[in-house]
Amino acid sequence: MSSLSPLVAGEAPIGRADEIVQRITEAIHLGLLDDAERLPVEVDLAGQFGVAPMTVREALATLRDQGLVETRRGRSGGSFVCRPAGPPVEQLTARLAAMSISDVRDLFDEHTAIAGQAARLAAERAAPYAVRRLFALTDQLGSAVTLGDRIRADSRFHIQVAIASQSARLARREANLQAEVAGLIWLPVEPVVQVDPYVEELHAISAAVAAENAAEARRLAEAHIMGQLARLTQVNVNLTVGRGAS
What we know:
Four Helix Bundle (Hemerythrin (Met), subunit A); Arc Repressor Mutant, subunit A; mainly alpha; two-stranded antiparallel ribbon; 2 domains
């Protein structure tokens, strides 16, 4: 299965090159696509996204212009990922500033529902190796040095919880939600979002899953997402006020 599959499977056909660019860009920044990873050929990408090969060709041209993809010729050629050192902070900030309070609330309402149910089912169904993976990702977040590493470890943790639930639909929804929220929740970059309390929350969710305490796992996951909503709503207000004053 392609690394892009969680971001496209189960979704309606996208149909526009700029939306494909957004999906692939998000997959790169989330770490779902590794640096130097070879993308599927145009025909296969077109099939995954439900578009014509010409639309994929246009999207790849844009990604090359943005420096996110490199195309090589020859038998071992193709389109390869060029992951930047950091996330596109200015683009993320502009996207959050353009969202209304209701947009932010609706996004996190959905995420609360998906994350809570995924955590509950993970506590009931997760295999031991999946639980170990949750603790490993929590440790990765705690030791992450760059903003990009934090975003990737955090995103992978939430996707891993959904994978541990053994529900393919929940895993797809969580992957798509991470593409929308993963960069936003670490805004603003200055002052830096406090990592330690965040890591402690993820560790507590992991411990509840390991203890097979479904109710507690769900409660902790929902509280974690709602805490993000409260903070990000204030960031959104600050950005809106700042834009109005400029």
